[in-house]
Amino acid sequence: MNDQRPVGELLRDWRQRRRLTQLDLADMAQISTRHVSFIETGRSLPSRAMLLRLVDRLDVPLRERNQLMTAAGLAPMYAERSLDDPAMREAHAAVELVLYGHEPHPALAVDRHWNLIEHNRALAPLLAGVPEFLLARPSNVLRVGLHPEGLAPRIINLGEWRAHLLHRLRHQIAATGDAVLASLYEELAAYPAPDDYDDYDVPASGLVVVPFRLRSELGDLSFISTTTVFGTPMDVTLSEIAIESFFPADAATTQAMRVLSASLEPAPSSSH
């Protein structure tokens, strides 16, 4: 979003994105509807405390909270540092702990645009055959998964998995208003798709989770995935990191991961 716009306009956009009326937001923030209206129209400039109250009720991401602070003439509240920054040493170590602790099962960390930050050693065998232009940094994991030269030809349930990923991406776009994600969605939705599956198809009745089923050198694998985020981050970068962890969904995959485990070198000790 453009942080040069008035703070009131930005707050109104977030309120509308959350499908709230001015009365809804006023009740949530325990202020008058008149006050909300005055802030949104620019007749009143919110104090730091008031702005923090509103963005908390609107569940605005940390990056965009900083933009709102700047638009209101206030100093940004949250730092934004690379994982390589010395101040982020413990956070980086925590990411590595989760990734390598999940072996021999695959796990990877991504940023807010689904660009790969780091992965454990169990992921590499699954990416065999993916061309370098898709893996070169910044490598986008959704592009790797759905590109016709990426994993897509080897995904056994491509239609189902594709619909699942695009659904997640639509939800993320609705929650953040991120233009980069919107552009990524348009790209992915234009990739070839199975004729018998629609991108808006919901999982079959009774299906608890959507499995990721892949043909690999280890055989046909089936995984379920979970997403981990940091609970109370005070840094923009950390708040935007998500760790995707994959678990075997059947006995054959469990056995294949045991075979893979025997071939892995000892995990590197963290230098962070």
TrEMBL record:
Residues 11-65 form the HTH cro/C1-type domain. It holds the Pfam family MLTR_LBD. SMART domains: HTH_XRE. It comes from the Bacteria. InterPro entries: Cro/C1-type_HTH, Lambda_DNA-bd_dom_sf, MLTR_LBD. This is Helix-turn-helix transcriptional regulator. It comes from Lysobacter gummosus.
